[in-house]
Design a protein that fits this description.
Helices cover 45% and strands 22% of the residues. It has 851 residues and is of the alpha+beta class. The termini are far apart.
C-alpha cells in the first residue's frame, strides 16, 4: 500500500529539514569553535606558566647581582651599601616591590644581639605581635625599603615560619637563593632570599616579588593581579609536604576539580609545582545528555536531508578547521616572539639599572674575566686610575693590582685569586705616572648560566693608611718612652742593695739582682711565676695574702716579718715592705722591698736559746746541789752516827756489834768516795784532763767483772742480772777501766729503777768493726722527748725521779767515755716498759791512747 504525500507537505518537510540541518551544523560549529577556544586558552595558559617560571628565574639572577652590591664594601659618608642602593633597586626593577636585610642569630647570641640593638625579636601569635619564642636560630629583619604601611614589622623573626626558616638556613649554608611565602599577620608576601655568592655568611638580602608583575603578559602593566584567562594559577614549593607560595585568587579557597595543567619546574635549585584550574568548572552531565539528544535529532534530520548535503558540510568544516589551526599557530608564534622581545627588553633595562648603580658608586669597580682581563669598569675606576676606559679595557688585572698577578705564568688566574674571594685585602694600585695608590680590594666571583666573571671593588684607603702610620709612629714613640722609663726603673732596681720586686696579681713581673741573690733564684724561675714559690705551702701563701692586701688596697705601706723559702729550700727571714702603685687600680700591681733579717733573727734565737739554757742549767744546778747535799749528807751522817755509837759503846759492845758499826762506816765512806770520784771525773772531762789507757783487752771479761761486782746490789733490790756473751774472748782495743765504769753506771741505774722480781739484760756483741754493748731493763723507761736530755749533766728522767737516788751525773759521764772512744750511746725505743741503752764502740779503739 503506497502512501501519497502532497507536494505542499513535501515542500514543507524539505524546508524544515534544511532549517534543522542548518541549526545542527551551526551548533556543531559553535561547539568546535568553543573547544578550539579552550584548547587555545590552555596553550596560552602553558605560555603563562612558562612566563611565570622565566620571571622567577630572572628575579633570582637579578636579585643575586643586586645582593652582591648591597652586601659589598663598607659605609660611605655614613651610608651603608644597603641604604645607598636599595632605592635604585626598586626604582629600576618593577619585578621587586620591597627589599630588606636579615641576619642569622644563634640562640646563644640572641640576648647580646637584643641588648646591642636595644630591641626585642617579635613574631605573630593569634594575629598579634608578641616576643619571639626561643629557637636554635633566629633570622630578624634589620633594614627595609620602603618602610610604608605594607612593610613587614621591624625586627620580625622570619624563623617563626618553618618554611621561611628552612629557606634561610639553605641560603646561609649553600649560598644558593631560595623562594618562600612570608606570612605576617593577615598579609602574605612572596619573597626571594639571597646571600653573597662564594662566601655565604650571617647577613642575607630579602627581595619581595611583585605578584602582578609575575603574572602580567603586557609590558608596563604592574597592577594586573590575575591573567585574563578562565584559569586559576597556583604555585607550590615541592617538598615532603607541598607548600603554597602563590595563588592568583587570594580568597579562592581550595580548588575542587583536578588541575587542567600541572607542571614541575626547577628554579634556583628548588622544585616548584605550577597548577592551573578552570574557572567555569567544565561541562555538566545534564548538558552532555541534552547535547547527546540534540545530536541524535540532528543526525536523524541530517540523514533525511541527504548524504550529499552532509558531505558538503563536512568538507567545508574540515577546510575551516585547517584554517583555524593555521591561524592559531601563527598567533602562538607571534605571542612567543613578543614574549622574547619583552624579556630581552627587560634584561636590557635590568642591565641599564645595574650599570647606573655601578656608575653611581664612589668606589672603583672592575669587571674581570676568567682569564684575568678587564672587561668593564665604572667612572670611579677611570678617575682613580687616571686613564681612559679605552686604554684600560682588555688590560690584565695584574698590571693594575700586583696582588692579582700570578707569580707563576703556568698558574691560571682563577686558581691564583681563589683564596682571596670574599676576603677583603689591601693592595697597591698602579695609576698613571707610576703613582702607587693604596686600596682595599673586595673580590667577588659571579657565576651565571652562560658566563662567569669576577667583580673587584677597590676603595681608596690612602688617608686611612696615613692615619694608621701616624698612629703607629705615635705608638712607637710611646713604646720608646715606656722602654726608656722601664730601663731607668730596671737600673734603679739593679742598683739598689735591697731586694726589690714588682708584683701584679700575685705574679712576679720584675725583680732586681739583690732579690735573686737573697732568695738564691734564677730570673727565669721567678719572672711570670706566682709568689707561691717563696712560701712553704698554700695555706701560708693565702694567709699572708689575706693580711697584706687590705693594707695595700687602703693605700698604706704594708710591713711584715715573715719566713720565706729560698731556692735551695732553706728558710729565709725577711721584713717585707709593700706599696700599691695605685690603690684604686689593683691591676697596676705593687712594689715590694725585702730586708734580710736572718742575722737579727739568729741572734734573737741564740739569745733566747742561751737564756733557756742558762735557766735550765740554773735549775739543774739547783737540783744538783739539793741532790748532792742529800747524797753527801746521808753517808756522812751514817759515818758520824756509827762512829759515835762505836765510841760510846766501845767498852760494852761485843766484837760483832763493833764489826757491824765498822762495816756501816766503811759502806757509807765508800758511797761518799764514789760521789766524790764522779764529781772529780766529770770536772776532768769538762776541762779535758781525763786520762784514758787504751789497750787490747777482752770485752767479755770486762762485762763479767762489772756484772759480778753489782750482783750484791741486785740481790738487795731483788733484781736478776742476765749476761749474754760468748765463752771465748772478744778482743777489743779500749780502756777497760772506763768501759767497766760505763757498764757499772748503766747496770746500777737499771737495778735502781727496776721493780722487784724484774730482770736486767746485759749483752756484748761483735758487729764487724764495731763492739755493741746493750743494757735492757723493765722499769718505768724514758719518754721519747727526753732520750737526748738524760745525757746532760744534772738531768734525770721525769719517770725515774722516784726517790731511788741519783745525782744526774752517771749518764753524762757515760756519754763522755763513749765520745772519748769515738763511739755512740743512745736510748732505743722498746715495746712495753723499760729502757734500752745501746753503746757502739770501734773495736780497734780510739785514735789516741791517752788524752
Amino acid at each position: 500500500m503506497k502512501t501519497a504525500f502532497s507536494p505542499r507537505l513535501l515542500w514543507l518537510l524539505g524546508i524544515t529539514s534544511s532549517l534543522l540541518l542548518w541549526l545542527g551544523a551551526n551548533w556543531l560549529q559553535q561547539g568546535n569553535e568553543q573547544r578550539e577556544l579552550r584548547s587555545q586558552q590552555l596553550r596560552e595558559a602553558e605560555l603563562l606558566v612558562d612566563n611565570a617560571a622565566n620571571q622567577l628565574n630572572y628575579a633570582l639572577l637579578a636579585g643575586q647581582a643586586t645582593t652582591e652590591l648591597l652586601l659589598s664594601g663598607n659605609a660611605d659618608n655614613g651610608q651603608t651599601p644597603f641604604q645607598r642602593f636599595a632605592p635604585f633597586t626598586l626604582a629600576e626593577n618593577e619585578l621587586f616591590d620591597f627589599v630588606a636585610s636579615s641576619r642569622r642569630v644563634s640562640h646563644a647570641q640572641r640576648r647580646h644581639y637584643e641588648l646591642r640593638q636595644a630591641i626585642v625579636l617579635r613574631e605573630y601569635s593569634n594575629g598579634k605581635l608578641v616576643p619571639a619564642a626561643l629557637r636554635e636560630l633566629h633570622f630578624p629583619l634589620e633594614q627595609q625599603y620602603p618602610e610604608d604601611s605594607k612593610a613587614l614589622p621591624a625586627q620580625f623573626d622570619l624563623a617563626s615560619q618553618p618554611n621561611v626558616a628552612a629557606a634561610l638556613q639553605r641560603v646561609s649554608k649553600s649560598g644558593r637563593p631560595a623562594i618562600a611565602l612570608i606570612k605576617a599577620g593577615n598579609a602574605s608576601r612572596l619573597a626571594a632570599f639571597f646571600s653573597a655568592r662564594g662566601h655565604p655568611g650571617d647577613e642575607m638580602i630579602v627581595l619581595g616579588i611583585n605578584p602582578g608583575r609575575l603574572l602580567s603578559t603586557v609590558s608596563g602593566n604592574v597592577d594586573v593581579l590575575r591573567p585574563a584567562l578562565p584559569y586559576r594559577l597556583r604555585v607550590l614549593l615541592k617538598d615532603t609536604r607541598p607548600t603554597l607560595i602563590f595563588d592568583s585568587q587570594d580568597n579562592g579557597g581550595n580548588p575542587q576539580p583536578a588541575p587542567a595543567l600541572s607542571s614541575v619546574r626547577t628554579i634556583g635549585g628548588q622544585a616548584l609545582i605550577f597548577e592551573l584550574y578552570p574557572l567555569d568548572g567544565g561541562n555538566t552531565p545534564s548538558d552532555m545528555a541534552h547535547q547527546a539528544l540534540i545530536l541524535l535529532a540532528l543526525i536523524i534530520m541530517a540523514t533525511l536531508s541527504g548524504l550529499i548535503v552532509l558531505q558538503t558540510r563536512q568538507s567545508q568544516r574540515a577546510q575551516r578547521e585547517r584554517l583555524q589551526k593555521q591561524g592559531a599557530q601563527n598567533t602562538l608564534l607571534q605571542q612567543q616572539w613578543q614574549e622574547q622581545q619583552k624579556r630581552e627588553e627587560e634584561q636590557k633595562l635590568a642591565i641599564q639599572r645595574l650599570r647606573a648603580i655601578v656608575e653611581g658608586s664612589g668606589d672603583a669597580i672592575l669587571v674581570i674575566s676568567r682569564d684575568g682581563l678587564i672587561r668593564d669598569l665604572n667612572r670611579a675606576a677611570e678617575a682613580m686610575l687616571g686613564q681612559s676606559r679605552d686604554i684600560l679595557l682588555s688590560l690584565p688585572a695584574g698590571a693594575l693590582i700586583s696582588e692579582l698577578h700570578p707569580p707563576d705564568m703556568a698558574q691560571s688566574f682563577e686558581r691564583h685569586v681563589a683564596p682571596r674571594i670574599g676576603r677583603p685585602f689591601d693592595a697597591l694600585m698602579i695609576c698613571s705616572s707610576s703613582l702607587m695608590l693604596q686600596v682595599e680590594v673586595a673580590l667577588t666571583h659571579v657565576a651565571l648560566d652562560s658566563d662567569a666573571f669576577y667583580i673587584a671593588v677597590c676603595r681608596d684607603i690612602s688617608a686611612r693608611k696615613a692615619s694608621e702610620a701616624a698612629l703607629i709612629r705615635l705608638k712607637d714613640s710611646l713604646a720608646e718612652q715606656v722602654e726608656t722609663q722601664s730601663r731607668q726603673l730596671s737600673a734603679l732596681l739593679d742598683a739598689s742593695p735591697m731586694a726589690m720586686a714588682y708584683i701584679v696579681s700575685s705574679e712576679f713581673k720584675q725583680v732586681n739582682h739583690a732579690f735573686l741573690d737573697l732568695f738564691l733564684q734564677h730570673e727565669d724561675h721567678i719572672i711570670g711565676h706566682s709568689t707561691r714559690i717563696l712560701y712553704d705551702n698554700d695555706e701560708h701563701h693565702s694567709r699572708t695574702g689575706s693580711l697584706i692586701y687590705p693594707t695595700l688596697d687602703s693605700g698604706q705601706v704594708s710591713q711584715d716579718k715573715i719566713c720565706l723559702r729560698r731556692g735551695d729550700g732553706s728558710p729565709q727571714w725577711v721584713c717585707m715592705y709593700g706599696k700599691a702603685v695605685k690603690p684604686d687600680q689593683p691591676e697596676l700591681g705593687s712594689v715590694w722591698l725585702y730586708q734580710d733579717i736572718s742575722a737579727q733573727r739568729a741572734a734573737e734565737d741564740n739569745l733566747r736559746h742561751a737564756k733557756e739554757l742558762a735557766e735550765e742549767n740554773s735549775r739543774a744546778k739547783t737540783e744538783f746541789l739539793a741532790n748532792m747535799s742529800h747524797e753527801l749528807r746521808t753517808p756522812m751522817h751514817a759515818i758520824l752516827g756509827f762512829a759515835e755509837m762505836g765510841q760510846a759503846r766501845a767498852d760494852s759492845a761485843g766484837p760483832d756489834k763493833l764489826r757491824h758499826y765498822f762495816e756501816r762506816v766503811f759502806s757509807s765512806g765508800s758511797r761518799l768516795l764514789t760521789l766524790l770520784n764522779d764529781l772529780l771525773d766529770l770536772s776532768k772531762m769538762e776541762v779535758g784532763k781525763m786520762v784514758y789507757t787504751i789497750s787490747l783487752c777482752d770485752a767479755n771479761q770486762v762485762a763479767r767483772e762489772a756484772v759480778e761486782e753489782l750482783r750484791g746490789m741486785a740481790q738487795r733490790h731483788d733484781v736478776h742480772l742476765r749476761l749474754i756473751c760468748e765463752d771465748h774472748p772478744l778482743p777489743a782495743v779500749l780502756d777497760a777501766f772506763r768501759i767497766g765504769q760505763l757498764l757499772r753506771n748503766l747496770i746500777s741505774n737499771a737495778i735502781k729503777f727496776s721493780p722487784a722480781g724484774a730482770a736486767v739484760e746485759i749483752s756484748v756483741l761483735s758487729d764487724g768493726p764495731s763492739l755493741i754493748l746493750n743494757v735492757r731493763d723493765f722499769g718505768p723507761g724514758i719518754p721519747e722527748n727526753e732520750r737526748e736530755q738524760v745525757f746532760n749533766t744534772f738531768i734525770q728522767g721525769s719517770l725515774t725521779k722516784t726517790g731511788a737516788g741519783g745525782t744526774g751525773l752517771g749518764l753524762a759521764i757515760c756519754r763522755e767515755i763513749v765520745h772519748a772512744h769515738h763511739g755512740r750511746i743512745e736510748v732505743l725505743p722498746v715495746s712495753g716498759n723499760g729502757a734500752h741503752f745501746r753503746v757502739s764502740l770501734p773495736a780497734g779503739g780510739a785514735p789516741e791512747e791517752t788524752y
